[in-house]
Amino acid sequence: MLAKKNFPGRDLLHLILQLPIILPPSVLGLYLLVGLGGSELLREAGFLFAFPAAVLAALVSSLPIMIQSTRAAFAGVNRETEEAALTLGRGPITVFLKITLPLARRGLLVGLALSCARALGDFGVTLMIAGNIPGRTQTLPLFIYSQVESINFARAHTASLLLIAVGVGSLYLVRKLEDGAHERLV
Amino acid sequence: MSDWFEAELRSEAGNFSLDISLSLNKEIGVLFGPSGSGKSLTLRCLAGLKTVRSGRILLEDRVLLDTRKSISVPPHKRKMGLLFQHLALFPHLTALENVRFGVNGGRREEIAREWLARVRLESHGNHYPFQLSGGQQQRVALARALAAEPRLLLLDEPFSALDGPLRRNLRRELRLLQSETGIPILYVTHQIEDLCALGDRVFFIEKGRITGSALVKDLLNGQKRFHFWNLMGWGNVFEGEVSYGEEGYPIFSWDSGRLLLKETEHTGPATAFIRPDRIRFLDPRYPVDSEIAPNKFSGTVEEIQMEGGIIRMQIMTPVGLWQVEQGGATTPARIPDIEEAVCFAVPPVAIELIFIKR
Q1: ipTM of predicted complex
Q2: For tag attachment on chain B, is the N or C end more exposed, with fewer CB atoms within 10 Å?
Q3: pTM of the model
């Protein structure tokens, strides 16, 4: 998150947060399952194979994308612009809210759109920790899988079209935002 | 009398080391030196944007930095405005919002409008920076910096991207604003014109060290001016006279040499200053541009220094020793040897004149 700060362990943290991109979802899901299942409290609370686990799965798989775009968005804000704001006598928090954040806004929205699409489409991690329980933890990709398994292609197609629409829609949004981002820069 | 502003800094950036001390009254100080001499770094250290290894900064009666007492006031509390070379206007805010950003107190809107009016941009308040011309952007940046009521304004060559007449206007405006507000200014430049037109006091900086300081009026007219020109150790300086030649063109002549000028408003005794990096090194095999042909000189290379991508040469000619710097796009195809016969030309636009009142 802190695109511009340097602190000890930053590289390690970065590596861990990027892991979900390269690890196979099943591996990720397995260790989440082992990790979460090992805790008495979470088992009692009915966390796994329930709605919260589906949310967690979506979060884990989309977080790296969000982090990546957030970093890029903040790093893209000209440093001198922020420094100029500081020398005008405004504190770091005001500068962040009034200058950095608005200037990074488009980049942040791009990240949000991309990670939403990614979260909706997650398959592996969700299956591993939330299961495929219709009406409770069945997400659209899992629904498609189930329908194909029971040779019900029509419903699979419908669900797929929905996902494609969301995907294409968010890509279109991203394109629009990125075009707009160049307009105002001097 | 104690000075308004005193600073003493030591800092490092890569293998460059900075060791600076300067003091200023409520006046315009100019930090003058070639590119890469640490001018911008100095300003960043003063504004608190770059950490300093050791040093002390006093402004008015406040201690902004004292490394021995572990005092370091953060940039936003230093009350030091900094006008960047690239201005750093806020692209997502209008001119008025840009200026208003740094204004304190209740009547922020009103004060911001007043400042815009002062730089004659009252009708452009709703324009975004990208809708303004270069000169207008400069004025917004200046108004923004002054509206925050700094106790010292630092300027990092903000006019360097502008052409002649615009620069002159802005310089005049800056002087006017300075005398109205009384806010002292530390101005960084490598242009002698800026120095003479703006400064009350000049600090020469070279390779991260202050090599001397002087009052600008002494520099121009005083007895010791040759001493100061030497202190600068950079640039070609000739004392001579501007007149109209037989062909009706203005020329600058001294002891044994003469240079064709572009145009001039005055004639009479003057000092000509030619920046070494604006001299055109010529390849003897090719014909010379007719515009610069009258200002062609030949000589032999006395000394060569390579620094980064820049070649610095001392060339001895019948009309004296010249400093010539070539680098970047003007790098000669082959670096000449010591004692080699070479020729170079001085484009008339590269000659800066300072008229001396006698």
Answers
A1: 0.72
A2: N
A3: 0.72
